[in-house]
Amino acid sequence: MLIAMWIKAMCNLDFQLQAPTPLVLMLRPRSGTHQWVARESYTIEPYVPVVEYTDIYGNLCQRLVAPVGIFSIQTSAKVMTAETVDINSTASFVEIQYLPKSVLAYLLPSRYCESDRFGDLAMEVTAGSQLGYDQVASIDRWVHHAIRYTPGSSNVAISAEEVNSRGEGVCRDLAHVAIALCRSISIPSRLVVGYLHGLYPMDLHAWFEAYVGGRWYTFDPTQEEVHGRRIAIAYGRDAADVSVFHQFGAGDILTNMDVRVELLNSDADSDDY
Length: 273
Prior knowledge:
The protein has two domains: 4-82 and 244-271, Immunoglobulin-like (Sandwich), CATH 2.60.40; 96-225, Roll (C8orf32 fold). The chain has helices at 119-125, 133-146, 160-166, 171-184; strands at 4-17, 21-28, 36-45, 51-54, 60-66, 69-82, 148-149, 168-169, 189-196, 205-212, 215-219, 230-236, 245-247, 254-264. It is α+β, with helices and mostly antiparallel strands. Helices cover 15% and strands 38% of the residues. The protein has a four-stranded antiparallel sheet, with no helix packed on it. A four-stranded antiparallel sheet has the order 4-5-2-13, with no helix packed on it. Strands 11-10-9-12 form a four-stranded antiparallel sheet, covered by helices on one side.
């Protein structure tokens, strides 16, 4: 039985800018099948005009030009989500000719997920697995045990092939390897970035979803057992599509990033914003 719960997630970003700097941000979760955004706050100091649009993956993006000096963004969202994720070992492989058009992009190699180089390994990892969900579960377990999850070990995205060679990485790195393996056996897979309650050390988190049995299922190779209590912010082919902010200009301008995720006892808790 699905157990719903309320989570409050907050992300604060501080920038020090030497020149007016265009930014594209991706900080607003959207309501969908597995989460309902009941309330949110998005504060910019000092205020500048913001244009919001939806990208080709359905993500909510904010576009602005940040001024010289200290620039801060504070976001929070109160979201109803699930305690658990759906698990369906009988979800079958969907033949390519029957996939929805919106899913096809997640079959192809991408910048950080070179699925055309993982075919032999994927066949080895999934040997004996039933086609579909069971294959993805085998890939998820293999990545969990073969690639050491080391938070903070990298602050730049690297390719799945390099992660596999190193044998360790951050959450997005493990997800990239799993995605590359899935796509190499024609299972559509995508990267998800968002919040995970109970994550330590707390930060934004990345996991992946695979399309089997006619829908998307959640997997997380950083965890021994995947669970819910997640808020998705953005979906994409890999890390290049889901960065919470893109800066256009020289220099490392982010001076502070603070992420917090709280479990609310009831709907009434949301009044304190």
